[in-house]
Write a structure and sequence with these properties.
It is built from seven helices and no strands. By secondary structure, the protein is mainly α.
Amino acid sequence: MNEITKEIFKLCDEKYKQFSKKLIPTVDKERILGLRAPLAKAIAKKYAKSSLGAEFISSLPHKYHDEDIVHAYMLGQMELSCEEMKERLLALLPYVDSWAVCDTLASSVSRFFQESRD
């Protein structure tokens, strides 16, 4: 288990896990750990510009839904070229299996695409 996943496990919340299971019925319940969004964002920001972050986003598919969420937030924090972002998105998209990951990804990388149009 990598450092980022270990950190996710340390920060999980059992009540939030039970709540999340009801909100995202398309995800296998065993994949949901219960990481709240502000903590997922903090982990993403902490590792986005590190070699651990690069390794993490290259290790698809992730075992846990919460890893997918951190991955989506992390993409929004990385300094990537248009081509690199496209590659990263195409790598992740086959594993987007819930509205939660989809919405997180869309909101995280929207800044990048807004800047691209200017």
